[in-house]
Amino acid sequence: MRELSLNVLDIAQNSIAAGATLITIRVTEESAADRLSITVEDNGRGMSPEQLQKVRDPFYTTRTTRKVGMGIPLFRMAAEMTGGSLDIRSELGQGTTVMAVFTLSHIDRMPLGDIQGTVTALIRLNPQLDFRYIQTVDGASFELDTRKLREILGDVPLNQPDVMEWIGGYLRENLEPLRSQA
Ligand SMILES: Nc1ncnc2c1ncn2[C@@H]1O[C@H](COP(=O)(O)OP(=O)(O)OP(=O)(O)O)[C@@H](O)[C@H]1O
Ligand SMILES: [Mg+2]
Fold it and tell me: Whose CA is closest to atom 24 on ligand 1?
């Protein structure tokens, strides 16, 4: 994987598979601390302490079609390559948070890539779910919350083409001024 945004897409797919109805993606860049953190938080079914322990082992998966689950191990590897780390917190019936920390300036840190594309794809493919995307660059933040969009849209589905086009433009216009280096 060449872009961290693709890892984010993968981690968010786990949340969807876990029955989440609200998924929060946070990207936080702190140049003074030379740190990039990415978290994906969901309100899905969560994991028991035993499951959680096994997920830390890369050869564990609940998939039946294939033996090895790669989403979390790949994201962990991308973080550890930069001297960072990955942490998972999960509670059965409550939800799961996956947190990855990267050294921002590390030569092996993959670029964030097309995170707007990831966020819009998640919304387009899962119009019944809610997503929050919060990007912070050195203290300046932007947030998209589909629950707020729904208040304005009423019965109009989020994945209707003109709504999707508007969301794409809204993300572009608001993320650009943050001047992300990620
Ligand atoms: N957000 C989550 N909520 C509940 N369980 C999760 C969550 N994320 C991961 N898991 C559990 O951890 C396992 C490993 O996840 P991982 O993404 O590494 O592999 P996978 O999803 O099984 O396979 P792949 O990502 O390669 O398609 C999952 O099969 C699932 O049981
Ligand atoms: Mg997965």
Answer: 69
